[in-house]
Task: structure prediction
Amino acid sequence: MNFELISPETTDELLKVISERRGKRFRFGAGGTDLLLELKKQPEKDLTVVNLANLNDERFTSIETQDDGFRIGALVTAGGIAANHGLKKQFAVLCEAANRLASRQIRQVATVGGNLCTASPAGDIACALMALEARCEILSARGMVRTIPINDFFVGVRKTDLKRDEILRSVLIPPNNESKKIYSDFIKIGTRRSMECSVVSLAYHIQADEDDKITHAGIAIGSVAPTIQFVKSACDYLAGKNFSSIGLSEAEEFAAKVLEYASPISDIRASAFYS
Result:
């Protein structure tokens, strides 16, 4: 693989690089777990790889608790998420998704930004963040920042809303309401037990009061549509129900509402019928 490698250390340097190469071919890289495989399969001529691994801006690299939730930098690794006690306590779905990603070695280098910007419908961390109704903070080469719902970030298979002069800086997770109980997890099915992309995945983050009445539900499904889907009507259906008293008929109706968002295809991993 032949490409020019640039490693900015400050955000100003990064924005200058983006601005200078706006009309040229360049790719961002951090952990490189996806990028290197892509370039090995399909080499690109006259390509510049902007290596983000040395960037020292905490808005890119840290996990911060804020009054309005958590901020997770795009360069935070899956391993960093899985080990964060604050996230484990409040958003188990995200930590479980991070912990199910690939292998221990890959989790130490694979980043949140890489998982989102690859825009794979099988993205584990992306699916969990969709269930959490996160927002994406996007920085342009001009230093302007815009924030959009994660549901608007994915626009197609491996396509995002990012413009040529923009980069994902961080992800914002809203706080839980004053719930007494939280049911939060990530379920993933693959063709083997580890080191595998999801054939189908489901992320859920359900909040309930002291009587187990559901006050808010966030549920997302992956690998069954061109983009990860937030199953809104299924979430709305759960609102107000007693979580521990949901019966078989209600569960079946809920499942039917989830399936409304699925449009799987047959591919190398599984048939459409299986998914």
Remarks:
- The longest helix spans residues 248-259.
- The first strand starts at residue 4 and ends at 6.
- The mean pLDDT is 93.
